[in-house]
Amino acid sequence: MKLRFLGTNSTSGDCPTLYATDRDSYIVQGWQLFANELLMQLDIPEGETAVEVPTDLFEHLKEDGLPALDIKGSRAPIMIFTPQGTCVVQGRAVTDPEALSQMSIPHYETCVEVPKPAITALLEETRAADLQR
Is the Cα torsion angle 119, 41, 81, 7 positive or negative in sign? Predict the structure, then answer.
């Protein structure tokens, strides 16, 4: 799987990152969820995992030609929003060696693959809600 870097909202020691793939999907790199309150709220199927990222990471979708909207919808793949301005994204655990070799993933992070149609559906839902206001 080939990756194209879309952006990061990196601060010292943190590096959630967004990539586009050549498989009509996105890779969301973020903080691992361990046995904490967020993880206990999820029913994660086998082969999937979840990461926590700042919600403004999705502003980088504009680098892939999508509108940079504030995603507010809480349905797959965005599972939970936190009061700290982060969200939990659920998707297939990335195990592809070629993809992993293109990223720098600290030990406290992991990444998930999310189908592009799932993200665009969230954007369309958000855009429709904004237009109704």
Answer: negative
Which residues are within 8 A (CB) of 59 and not within 5 positions of it... i.e. 6 or more apart?
A: 7, 9, 68
Closest CA to 103 of 24, 19, 14: 19
Better-scored residue on pLDDT, 102 or 128: 102
Instruction: Give the per-residue pLDDT at 122.
Output: 77
What is this structure's pTM? 0.87
Q: Which pair of structure tokens corresponds to residue 128?
A: 């429709």
> How would you write the chain as a 3-class SS string?
CCEEEEEECCECCECCEEEEECCCEEEEEEEECCCCHHHHCCCCCCCEEEEEEEHHHHHHHHHHCCCCCCCCCCCCCEEEECCCCEEEEEEEECCCHHHHHCCCCCCCEEEEEEEHHHHHHHHHHHHHHHHHC
Burial of 35 (0-12, 13-18, 19+ CB in 10 A): exposed
Q: How many alpha carbons lie under 13 Å from residue 122 in its C-beta half-sphere?
A: 21
